[in-house]
Amino acid sequence: MNSPRGSIWRKWDLHIHSPKTFLNKQFNGVSADDFVNKVSESEIVAVGLTNYFRFDGSELEDIKRKFVAKGIVVFPNIEFRTQPPNKENQEMHIHVLFSDEVSINKIENFLGRLKTVDGKYCKDLTADEIKTTSISIDTLKNTLTEDEDIKHLKDYIIVACPRGQGNFRPSGNDDGRGNNFAIVVDKSSEALFGNADDTDFFLKQDRYQNAEQKPVFLCSDSHRLEDIGKKFSWIKSDITFEGLKQTLYEPSERVKLQDRNPADVKTERVVIDKITYKNESKENKVVHFNKDLNSIIGVRGSGKSTLLKNLAQKIDPVQFQEKDKKSPYTLNDFDVEWGDGKRNEGDDDSPKSIFYVPQNYLSSLAYDDGEHINERDAFLTKLLKKNTRFENAVQSFDNFVSKNKIKIEDLTQKLLKATGSIDLLHNHLRTPFSLSTPYSQSPQSG
């Protein structure tokens, strides 16, 4: 199920009701196959198959089997109305989202121990009772904690709903009873089912004292076929419960609520798609690349540097020779394929380039203040210029220097000219001169 490229962005819908949902059913005769096919056609790779308080008979088993046949991972999801209510006196909704590896029997056993406020076990509730009943948040938490067959964060997570009926928004400035319950719900959950407007709020760690960042998932909450595929979350992880848990630790980096695939921000022409080569046994080998960060991991001598050197030499042999004097161990039929279909150095329409940093290169630049000082400055400047903000700042600085250099040169010329004029006047003042009288004039007598 996992991609050879590692963690990639894919569509998940973690709150989706099937035609067997107990409440607000609007599927109007849609079959389980139609339901599963619609999800598959929407390119959703993981679902939280949801029903209220329990699943309907063999619902989970039958539909999960159909999803798995389509390559779609199923996380069982039980939705509960809970007590106490929010500040609008509405029952808040809490979900227990189970790992895809938790058996149906374990889920049913848990529901067989969970009591509603009416004193009935969730497993035994009728469809009519499900319409009106609820559970205490404390009862839910305690029953989960006491269950020896399912473990928190290993087998399930708790998800709250800040929107819709029973919505909540905890605040550190309001000590009212409703707000206190909102904080309890927030603290009791690992994630939220909401929308893009909720994302920034639940990433704030000052929404109340000691609040934690939490991911917000956008879901269809489908109760009819037409709802499927219209709302979903982009999640960057393996399609596993462990992958889902990774979003709890990196909520802002692993979850995006938008229509377009977040990976599409990079044009295909600047992304390496894969490399191919033949090993010593002449077998064809393929290494797929991720559009984001790629890490080469291995013990000493496992070929990490060999792979890097072959990449650099194949794409930019001139740069390779400038930075690395040691030729690599050549991999047979080594070929680099880019996202736009071009190979190795590319062509005139789409030339390719890399920024190659060989092994120990940074150390030599960092510790040699003599021979490599100019090379280090050039390296760091080129590296930093790959950041758009830094490049724009450098360009603005260069424009400022160029513009003011002209002004300085003009003022310098004026200053030199003025200095020349002053020197000339000084020379004139120093030159002796006499006054001659063309005729003598005597005083008139009276």
- Tell me the Rg in angstroms: 36 Å
Distance between the termini: 134 Å
Shape: extended
Spans of at least 5 consecutive residues with low confidence: none
The counted number of beta strands is 13
Q: Approximately how much beta-strand content do the residues carry?
A: 15-25%
Give the SSE order as H and E letters. EHEHEEHHEHEHEHEEHHEEEHHEHHH
Describe the structure concisely.
This protein is α/β, with parallel strands linked by helices. The chain contains 14 helices and 13 strands.
Description of the structure:
This protein has helices at residues 32-41, 59-69, 104-111, 127-132, 137-146, 177-188, 196-203, 241-249, 251-254, 304-315, 317-323, 361-367, 373-384, 388-430, and strands at residues 8-17, 44-52, 73-83, 92-98, 135-136, 156-160, 191-193, 216-217, 233-237, 255-256, 272-278, 284-288, 332-338. With 446 residues, it is of the alpha/beta class. Strands 1, 2, 3, 4, 5, 6, 7, 8, 9 and 10 form a ten-stranded mixed β-sheet that branches. Strand 2, helix 2 (59-69) and strand 3 (73-83) form a beta-alpha-beta unit. The N and C termini lie far apart (134 Å).
What is the strand and helix layout of this fold?
Elements: E1 8-17, H1 32-41, E2 44-52, H2 59-69, E3 73-83, E4 92-98, H3 104-111, H4 127-132, E5 135-136, H5 137-146, E6 156-160, H6 177-188, E7 191-193, H7 196-203, E8 216-217, E9 233-237, H8 241-249, H9 251-254, E10 255-256, E11 272-278, E12 284-288, H10 304-315, H11 317-323, E13 332-338, H12 361-367, H13 373-384, H14 388-430
Parallel strand pairs: 1-2, 2-3, 3-5, 6-7, 7-8
Antiparallel strand pairs: 1-9, 3-4, 4-6, 9-10, 11-12, 11-13
Helix pairs in contact: 10-11
